[in-house]
Amino acid sequence: MTETDADDLAHLIRNAHRVVVFTGAGISTESGIPDFRSPGGVWSKMKPIMFQDFVASRDARREAWTRVFNRTAGWTGASPNAGHYAVAQLVEAGKVTSVITQNVDNLHQDSGVPDSKVIEVHGNASYAKCLTCGKRYELEALRHHWEADEDITCMFCTGLIKTATISFGQAMPEDEMARATEEALLADLFLVLGSSLVVYPAASLPLVAKKAGSNLAIINREATEQDPYADLVLNTDIGPLMSAVMGRL
Ligand SMILES: [Zn+2]
């Protein structure tokens, strides 16, 4: 990161009224959460459990819950970093209207962003939900069922309970995608922090914003296919950059 990088991003943020932040794995790797798609990441070590298999197979559910309670996937239990806190400050200041995230780690909420301002397009791994009635369950309240080797089902409707993530093979959450699209259309700065922009349909949002007249800034360690459309591209770590930017606003 250079001083000019921080100046350039600070300039864009200062001149914007509706900043929409879009985050991916890159903001959370700085908190020690593995990027599960990268080489050496979680999915190169163990196969994801498809939604259809989870629903159809008790063994698949058992394996899924074992990964949760053994923390095999490493999705939860980390702490927010400087990047998350900078975003939280910008939300608090009214500069950022919403945070769209592909992450399931709850770190935006943990850093102080109100739940109502976080749009989770891939769900959340820090709690569970009944697949039938939607009732929320805290993970620790379910642990004894896993320890007793019981199938984990809803106490109200007997539906299957699963972590609140969007699994491979599971439909995207319609309400969240609709809200995210609306936010992208209203943005005057769409700020990508730590996403390689390869997982669709979420990755279509920056161009939705750009086509509607927003500025687009992409901050990611590696280049992305959407860099040619961006007003600013910085290939750098997020925490140090955002700390420097906050000092300039
Ligand atoms: Zn239920």
Automatic annotation (TrEMBL):
What Pfam families does the database record attribute to this sequence? SIR2 (PF02146)
- What is this enzyme's EC? 2.3.1.286
Which positions does UniProt annotate for Zn(2+) binding? C130, C133, C154, C157
Q: Which domain of life, per UniProt?
A: Bacteria
Q: Nucleotide-binding: present as a keyword of the record?
A: no
Record-annotated active site: H122
Indicate what this protein is called per its UniProt record. protein acetyllysine N-acetyltransferase
Organism annotation: Hyphomonas hirschiana VP5
